[in-house]
Write a structure and sequence with these properties.
4 strands; 201 residues; alpha+beta; 11% strand
Length: 201
């Protein structure tokens, strides 16, 4: 697979060993990628980012009658160098078409994180990875995905803006209200917002 220049530079900088990177490094990597792709706005489109990196994203009906239990738990698929006879691009993401938008965005970001963190494009012609149904876990891919969906600068700015707006209006902003507003702004769940807040502490 022909790797995007910025992704290649990041992987080479870490000698394809990103398993021990810290949260501040993750935030800097995300910032670098978003700037290189000229991605703007508070809530970046994860699908646009994936497309710009050379992948095609499809909605796919993973949960079907007649499929074994193992396959039924699959919610996402990352394929590098695979021929699905869908179109000419053999590098793709398949996202469960039955997932609601917030969950689908997380799955896409998780698969992208897996690609960036774990695949050595120089040595890999063909690769696949399946994302199975799971809770938010404190693994590197999850932290990377949350950072993609809620970039540090945009997220921190939104928190401050909300606090100022409520103070100016002489209103109290409860934690639940803050979580709900941020979840809607970044199109994620409140659980994801809570997890991102912890990462930024």
């Amino acid at each position: 697979m022909r790797t995007h220049k910025t992704i290649k530079e990041i992987k080479e900088r870490y000698n394809y060993q990103l398993s021990n990177i810290q949260q501040d490094e993750i935030d800097e990597i995300i910032k670098e990628i978003l700037m290189a792709l000229k991605t703007t706005g508070v809530c970046p489109s994860i699908i646009d980012i994936i497309n710009k990196l050379g992948f095609t994203v499809y909605n796919f009906p993973f949960e079907k009658d007649g499929v074994d239990d193992e396959s039924k738990s699959i919610r996402g698929f990352l394929g590098v160098g695979f021929d699905f006879n869908i179109n000419e691009n053999s590098n793709c993401f398949l996202i469960d078409k039955y997932c609601e938008n917030k969950k689908a965005r997380f799955i896409a970001a998780y698969l992208l994180s897996h690609y960036i963190l774990n695949i050595n494009d120089e040595k890999t012609d063909k690769y696949h990875f399946c994302y199975h149904e799971q809770d938010l876990k404190n693994c590197l891919e999850t932290r990377f995905a949350l950072s993609f969906l809620m970039p540090k600068e945009a997220f921190s700015a939104q928190v401050e803006l909300l606090k100022i707006a409520y103070e100016t209006a002489d209103k109290t902003l409860s934690k639940d209200e803050l979580l709900e507003i941020l979840a809607n702004t970044f199109q994620v769940t409140t659980a994801m917002v809570k997890a991102r807040m912890i990462l930024l502490k």
